[in-house]
Amino acid sequence: MDSRTAARRELVLMASVVIGLSRLVDGPLEWVVAGLLGGSVLAGSLWLLGDGHPRGIAIETTIIPALAAMACVGVIQIIPDGLPIVVGIGLAAILVDRSLALEQHLSSRVSPASADDRSAVLGLSVLVSFLAFIGSAALVQGGLVEPSGGGSGTGIATALSESTLVVLALSDAIVGGLLGFRLSVLRERTRRAALWSAGTYAAVVAIAAGAIRAVALPRLLGPAIVTLVFFLWDAIHGSPPAQRRDPRWIWQTALLAVIGVAVVAWNVALR
């Protein structure tokens, strides 16, 4: 086992232990633990990817691993006690490890990222965004709409104060903006253009998060719809003009949008 692989596994082990222990805290301390873990994974990723020389490593390479670890702190809070906790910690370790492995692969390339690399980053970004949207909603009091006992699929919505709703929308916007920046860096020519693109991701996700919470979709359906919005925005905003004119691309994107609207409308109609 080479030193970088050993260092990656040590970082993953540290993150997994903190994620598991975060079940013992609640309230504002959950945000503190998530923030400290994210900062630790960020610093560890820079050291790992730079092989002990972090100054030459681009900061965007740490976004996905750090967000993956922070998201798992929130998600672990809603997992039932017992064996599911152990399974959840194991899956969290795999997610953080694969995120670091992907960034190691990208940082070792001497040529620009290939189409397969960009697809891998997109797939991992969508997964991390879904978990992060769940995590932020779980850490906000009343952020997740609890299912009712009637078996109708509807949910019991807890009214959120304006400040709490702002926290939820802002946290989701930060997630969307950071992941949008990571995706944009792979295709934009300058960092300024990537930052501008990331701002559009953040704005779209914030609007979607606020609107979806107002509709009060039950449990994980809300974060799933926000994730769909994030994915659709990347498909529309990040695709080259020639691809946007492809009829197959248009129909596929439109179908996803229609499915998302239909799911929202169906749940509203149920209530």
Task: Walk me through the structure.
- The mean pLDDT is 83.
- It is globular and about 55 Å long.
- The protein has helices at 3-21, 28-49, 63-75, 83-107, 115-139, 162-185, 191-215, 221-238, 241-244, 247-270; strands at 146-147, 155-156.
- It has 271 residues and is an all-alpha fold.
- Helices cover 73% and strands 1% of the residues.
- The chain starts with a helix and ends with a helix.
- It has a two-stranded antiparallel ribbon.
- It folds into two domains: 1-108, no CATH class; 115-271, no CATH class.
- Helix 1 (3-21) packs antiparallel against helix 4.
- A hairpin with a 7-residue loop joins strand 1 (146-147) and strand 2 (155-156).
Any key phrases for this structure?
single chain; mainly alpha; 73% helix
Unreliable spans: none
* Range of strand content: under 5%
Q: Please give the order of strands in the largest beta sheet.
A: 1-2
Number of domains: 2
Evaluate the radius of gyration: 19 Å
What's this entry about, in short?
The chain is mainly alpha-helical.
Spell out the blueprint of helices and strands:
Elements: H1 3-21, H2 28-49, H3 63-75, H4 83-107, H5 115-139, E1 146-147, E2 155-156, H6 162-185, H7 191-215, H8 221-238, H9 241-244, H10 247-270
Antiparallel strand pairs: 1-2
Helix pairs in contact: 1-2, 1-3, 1-4, 2-3, 3-4, 3-5, 5-6, 5-8, 6-7, 7-8, 8-10
